[in-house]
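Just curious. Invent one:
>
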Amino acid sequence: MKAKLDENLPLQIAFRLRELGHDVHTTQQENLSGCNDSELWANAQRDGRTLITQDLDFSDSRRFTPGTHHGIVLIRLHSPSRLRLVERMQDAFQTEPVDEWAGCFVVVTDHKIRVRRPSKLQS
């Protein structure tokens, strides 16, 4: 997967996902730290990357309709410690068919993963 990791997530996630063979950029390495959501979103879309974030501004799947973008992975944990975020994302990327998440709206919680795929009408 080609992904962009939002600055609200630990950098260790990028390292772990790269070890699993994914192409992950971070806002820090692209000098996007502190940028607004619109700039982050435009950058991810221009680069063809799935945005991985905790930012609830990206949580409205009606606004970010599956199939109209390169993908969003929204991680929502009950107690999102740095270690727990890293572990949960590594587990998700090791056990789920993440290469099928392109264009999808994905919510990763403590115990489940919900994937909203593009509708057949948008394909």
